[in-house]
């Protein structure tokens, strides 16, 4: 049975990020794509993610079936009117002393990464140059054929092929085995599923507008909510692997000793510049003024 631990973050004994630490993620909104240019004139496509009053609504501690503890931080984002919120959720938000939210999600963390309830998180939770994973529901494209869904080449455009140029062709064998093997790539529903874009580079952080610029495309439609967290493969796993040789700092961006821990809050952002960019590649953009 789950229990809340609102005061658990006050007893944190390790305020510094380590290779064994797993931080909470953030809930952002995908605002669209734009481009940035480096000093060599190379064009870098980026996706703009914006935080909308992202706050901690609960700290969760649960006991698994194997008697191990499960720790998580519950995050809420995007304020909503009280009249459209259910009575149950009103009581939950009232207990956390935060306004009602449109979306509430929880992120698994390590026991030392709990964040006090009611804390407002900032875009500086992520450091320019680091890698993140972005999870969202992809855009649904309906029932599609094999060429669009699986990148099939299709059949020949001439020489005997009649009105079957985009078909899948032969899908099964003869009498043996006489059936289709499970997992055969065929026409069907495309998109509309929960998908994660992994190992995206954070190019820029704007603490004034709470913007996070990530390199490349992320799933989801514009203005859709997305979940952003530290890259599991390139940051979390590599940090633990390099810990064995005492060099886990190599997985962090150049010039960065550690990450904001247990989270990057709005209070911490007040002491930093408005726009923070990756040091390895200085990137300029005509859309966001630099300080």
Question: In brief, what are we looking at here?
Answer:
Its main location: mitochondrion. This protein has helices spanning 87-96, 146-150, 232-243, 266-269; strands at residues 3-4, 26-38, 43-50, 55-63, 69-79, 101-108, 131-137, 143-144, 188-189, 194-206, 211-215, 225-230, 275-277, 283-284. By secondary structure, the protein is mainly beta.
Q: How would you describe the overall organization of this protein?
A:
Helix content is 11%, strand content 31%. It has 291 residues and is mostly beta strands. The chain has a single domain, classed as Beta Barrel (Elongation Factor Tu (Ef-tu), domain 3), CATH 2.40.30.10. The strands form three sheets. A six-stranded antiparallel β-barrel has the order 2-3-11-10-7-12. The chain has a four-stranded antiparallel β-sheet with strand order 1-4-5-6. Strands 8-9 form a two-stranded antiparallel ribbon. A hairpin with a 4-residue loop joins strand 10 and strand 11. The termini are far apart. The N terminus and C terminus are likely disordered. GO terms for molecular function: structural constituent of ribosome. Keywords: Mitochondrion, Ribonucleoprotein, Ribosomal protein, Transit peptide. InterPro entries: Ribosomal_uL3, Ribosomal_uL3_bac/org-type, Ribosomal_uL3_CS, Transl_B-barrel_sf. It is found in: Mitochondrion.
């Amino acid at each position: 049975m789950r229990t809340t631990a609102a005061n658990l973050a006050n007893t944190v004994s390790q305020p510094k990020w380590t290779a064994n630490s797993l931080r909470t993620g953030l809930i952002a909104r995908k605002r669209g794509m734009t481009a940035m240019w480096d000093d060599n004139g190379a064009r870098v496509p980026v996706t703009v993610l914006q935080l909308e009053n992202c706050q901690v609504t609960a700290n969760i501690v649960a006991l698994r079936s194997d008697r191990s503890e499960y720790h998580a931080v519950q995050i809420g984002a995007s304020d909503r009117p009280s009249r459209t919120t259910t009575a149950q959720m009103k009581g939950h938000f009232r207990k956390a002393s935060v306004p009602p939210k449109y979306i509430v999600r929880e992120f698994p963390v390590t026991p030392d990464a709990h964040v006090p309830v009611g804390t407002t998180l900032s875009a500086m939770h992520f450091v320019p140059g680091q890698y993140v994973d972005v999870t969202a529901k992809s855009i649904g494209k309906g029932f599609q054929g094999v060429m669009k869904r699986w990148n099939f080449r299709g059949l020949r455009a001439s020489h005997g092929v009649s009105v079957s140029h985009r078909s899948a062709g032969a899908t099964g064998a003869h009498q043996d085995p006489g059936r289709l093997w499970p997992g055969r790539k065929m026409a069907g529903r495309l998109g509309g599923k929960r998908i994660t874009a992994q190992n995206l580079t954070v190019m820029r952080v704007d603490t004034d507008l709470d913007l996070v610029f990530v390199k490349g495309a992320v799933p989801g439609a514009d203005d859709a909510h997305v979940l952003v967290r530290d890259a599991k493969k390139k940051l979390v796993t590599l940090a633990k692997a390099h810990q064995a040789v005492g060099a886990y700092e190599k997985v962090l961006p150049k010039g960065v000793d550690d990450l904001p821990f247990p989270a990057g809050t709005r209070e911490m952002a007040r002491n930093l510049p408005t726009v923070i960019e990756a040091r390895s590649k200085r990137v300029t953009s005509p859309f966001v003024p630099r300080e």
